[in-house]
Amino acid sequence: MNTPPHPIPPMPSAVGLTHLKVYDTRTPDGLIGGSPHVHFVCTEMYIIVGGRGAVQTLSPSGFHETPLEPGMALWFTPGTIHRLINGDGLLEIQIVMQNAGLPEAGDFVLTFPEAILNDADAYFDAASLSPRGEVYTSSQAAAVRRRDLAVEGFTELRQRYDAEGAVALERFYTAALRLIQPKLDTWRGVWQRGPLAATTRTGEQLAALAAGDTTHLHEGSLCMLPPPGDNRRLGVCGTLGVYLPEGALRT
Questions:
Q1: Got the DSSP string for 151-195?
Q2: H, E, C per residue of 77-130
Q3: Residues 6 or more apart whose Cβ sits within 8 Å of residue 99
């Protein structure tokens, strides 16, 4: 009699994982890199695996540029507007994303100019998202267009921040919030099925161990993901090597 397989677990804390090759074309301000954007409920981590460059950030603490080199690990919390600069044209990053990879599934707003941010139809047309609202687009031209628009808006936002301080950021956050509010119920479902379920499971395991129950230890397994294939997707900051769903292969 065949025993049905155990449910395949998510990655630790139900994080998401993707491999990024940052765009190597120039933006309107002469720099090489990706699209400035912000996340609302997710902390995102960069592990630099190749090349050199920088990440520009804008938050209530001001504008900063942080150099990037192989071996570095850094992360930023919700509300931090960030932009990758591909210094040597070879910048590659392993990205770890909170909340089951929610940033790749819609938790972001690009820093388009205010006139576009304040018009939902214009924003989503320029953002050129997949039909499910994911970051991916099938058109190189659309990827470049939205990147350049985001850089244009980021430059304007930095200028407004220099003149107005936190008021400029609050105006951007408010406009961006209107764009993502219709998605919040979907995001809540992702959170409930992923990180919340993983945390709840830890509580159950602690209670079981306290009671002397080791049942869940007999369900231990090794899971693996193969390297992303050559069929990369056009993302916000560069081309993305997308991993198969967590635990798609198990040994």
A1: HHHHHHHHHHHHHHTHHHHHHHHHHHHHHHGGGHHHHHHHHIIII
A2: CCCCEEEEECCCCCCEEEEEEHHHHHHHHCCCEECCCHHHHCCHHHHHHHHCCC
A3: 14, 15, 16, 41, 42, 107, 187, 190, 191, 194, 195
Q: Across-strand partners of 75?
A: 45
* Phi, psi (deg, nearest 5) at residue 162: -60, -35
Contact of 29 with 151, CB cutoff 8 Å: yes
Task: State which amino acid sits at residue 86.
Answer: N
**Backbone Cα Rg of the chain:** 20
Please state the rounded mean pLDDT for residues 162-190: 95
pLDDT mean over 58-86: 97
1-4, long-range: CB < 8 A, 24+ apart: none
Q: How far apart are CA 211 and CA 100, in angstroms?
A: 31
Which string of b and e fits 192-219 if b means at least 16 CB within 10 Å? Answer: eebbeebeeeeeeeeeeeeeeeeeeeee
Report how far residue 114's alpha carbon sits from residue 156's, in angstroms, rounded to the nearest whole number: 9
In the DSSP assignment, the letter for residue 146 is H
Q: What are phi and psi of 58, to 5 degrees?
A: -135, 125
Q: Residues 1-21: what's their mean pLDDT?
A: 75
DSSP structural state of residue 30: S
